[in-house]
Amino acid sequence: MNQKNLLGLNKCFLDLDDPIELFKVWIDEAKKSEPNDPNALSLATSSGNNLPSVRMVLLKEFNQNGFVFYTNLNSQKGNELRENPNAAMCFHWKSLLRQIRISGTITQVEDDVADQYYNSRGYDSRIGAWASKQSKVLKDRDELEISIKEFKKKFNDENNVPRPNHWSGWNLSPIRIEFWLDGDNRIHERLNYTINKSGNWIKSLLSP
Questions:
Q1: What pLDDT score does 103 carry?
Q2: Is the C or the N end of the chain the one with fewer CB within 10 Å?
Q3: Domain limits for position 95
Q4: 3-state SS assignment for residue 188
C-alpha cells in the first residue's frame, strides 16, 4: 500500500509532505475552537544531569526554521537549555481531540528578532521581564511588587523600555513531528514525520 493510501485513513492528516504546512492547518483550526491560548504547549527540557522538567509556554512564531518561544534566559528552562540544547514540545487541543509532539534542538534567536517581539508586548509585560528573577526564590510577594515599582520608576516612558539582556527567545528546530488524532476505543491515529540526512521529511503511520 503506498503512502497516499495510508494517509487517506483520515482526511485530517491531509496529504502533505511538509509537516510545517500541516501544523499551520491544525493550529489555525485550534484558534477557532480552543477557548484559551491555542498556542499553549508543554515544553520538556533536561539538565546536564539528565533530570527532566516540563512546563507550559506560549508559541509566538513558527516557520520552516522552527518553533519560537520567549523566556528569561536565567530561568530553570534557560539554564537547562544551555546545558542540554535538546528539547520537546507537545500541543494538546481538547476541543479537537488532537495533539502534536515535536522534538529537536534549541538555539537562541537573533537579538533583532527578540527586540522586535519584546517591543510588541504591553508595558507591564516588558517591566515584568526586568522585575522578575524567574525561578529564583522569593522571600515574599512584596519583594516582587517592590521590584516592579522600582523598574516602573526607572523606565517611566512606556514607549522606551529596552529589552533586558537576560530575556530572549529560543527556537526549536524540529527533527521529528508527530500528529495524533483521537480514535474510538483508544485506537488513535498517529502520523509521524522525521527528517533525514538530506533535510527531507519522511512520513509514516505509527501504531496507537
A1: 98
A2: N
A3: 3-115+165-206
A4: coil
Residue 199 within a domain: yes
121 vs 136: CA distance, rounded Å: 23
Whether the per-residue pLDDT at 194 is higher than 60: the answer is yes
Dist. CA 106–CA 93, nearest whole Å: 24
* Residue 26 belongs to a domain: yes
pLDDT, tens digit, 9 for 90 and up, residues 51-78: 999 999 999 999 999 999 999 999 999 9
**What is the model's pLDDT at position 137?**
87
What is the count of structural domains for the chain?
A: 1
User: Does 59 map to a domain?
Assistant: yes
**Stretch (H or E) spanning 115:** helix 111-120
**Residue 186 catalytic?**
yes
Number of neighbouring beta carbons within 10 Å of residue 22: 21
Question: Which residue of the set 121, 176, 186, 190 is catalytic?
Answer: 186
Residue 3 — very low, low, confident or very high, per pLDDT cuts 50/70/90?
very low
Global pTM reads: 0.89
Residue of 75, 56, 79, 81 lying closest to 133 (CA atoms): 75
- What stretch of H or E contains 150? helix 141-154
We report the CATH number of the domain holding residue 55 as 2.30.110.10
Does residue 47 form part of some domain?
Answer: yes
